[in-house]
Amino acid sequence: MDKPVEEVLFEYLRDVLYSPAKAELNVDLLPDIFQDFGKGLLYFVECVKETTTLAKSLSKGDLNGQWPSKGNDLAAPLKALHATLKHLTWQTQRVASGDYKQRVSYMGEFAEAFNAMIVQLDQRRQALLDEIESSRKKTLALAQSNSLFEAVTEQIAQWIVVMDRSDGDWLSSNHEAANILASPWCETQLRRWMGTQSDVALGDDKRATELELPKGDGIQYFSVAIYPLHWYEHDALAFVFTDISSEKERLQKLENVAYRDTLTKAYNRHYGMEMLNKWLEEGSSFIICFIDMDNLKYVNDKFGHAEGDKYILCVVETLRDFSSDAIIFRLGGDEFMLLAQGWTITAAETHLEKLRDCLIRYNDEPDAFYNHSMSYGVVTVDASNAMSASELLGIADEKMYEYKRAHKMQRQNTAI
Hints:
The chain has 416 residues and is an alpha+beta fold. The chain is built from 13 helices and ten strands. It has three domains: 5-93, no CATH class; 104-259, Beta-Lactamase, CATH 3.30.450; 260-406, Reverse transcriptase/Diguanylate cyclase domain (Alpha-Beta Plaits, 2-Layer Sandwich).
């Protein structure tokens, strides 16, 4: 050996730290009294490398990276952290699928915040579902509980039409029903629909149903109670139409609250995962675009959350230009998912790049105080796919981070 032992060992440790690729120690060349030490040093360095590899995987959120050897006690804390993250990931997936019984009994303040969030989500979801169900029952009860007497005496704003069962002639109608004659199109649709009901309403039992009629640029909704009766020697049906448009609108608003993001009006994560799993179950071919806003934390910290909200809305409006058939979901604060059918990955990435350029052009505005930008990752799915929704999202997320690293903007502001 040409060099002193301490110098050889020092150079080896230096290479391990700064030039791992060329780090090499030949124990056989060491003096006999240092060979056991050299072997121990090699084992120690191997343990450090394994621990470092696991730490890098965990830092990127990769819970399936290379596992350290069984005797590597240096990696024990990271192994414990890996197990904790695995279990926490499983619990989070359960919560995303609607299991609000999950609780975390470790990790200190995080556990308290996580458990409080689950309780709040469960309470809010249940309250919304209860209110939706209550509204449905009220609408159904309204359609089933009407009587002709109540319609005439207490609810004269309803439409009341008596129709001959055999030929469809109108035998009688109240003032409100007569007003529809001002719209020939509406009258034609109403007469045709009532004619079909004469075949359904057999016997002497009351029945209830619903009807949609055009009104201007919108739709008017009715609950309809149908009563078989004899009307001046005619076998007739009495139709009582109750306008339930406001109830329908209220129910739609409740559903929007349950499935849409409050700020952007895009669909929320819960609905996004439902839609993604539905398309996967149907074996559809589509793309998943995972989009992450650049620089949102800086904007919130520097200019306040009101300005951050404006930035979020700006990004959403830009994403809406992707395609009229695309569906946008807000997964979290600065993360979005876009699902679309009939796109190749190349076409999608090209179009997303154009949208990103449009977003960046905001930086040239006189009142632009920060850089607008976004990063994205795209995954294609076809009928042969065997991966879960979470796995596909994870791949899209990783591709997004690869894009972010490759296109990191050189600007004055600190990126996220």
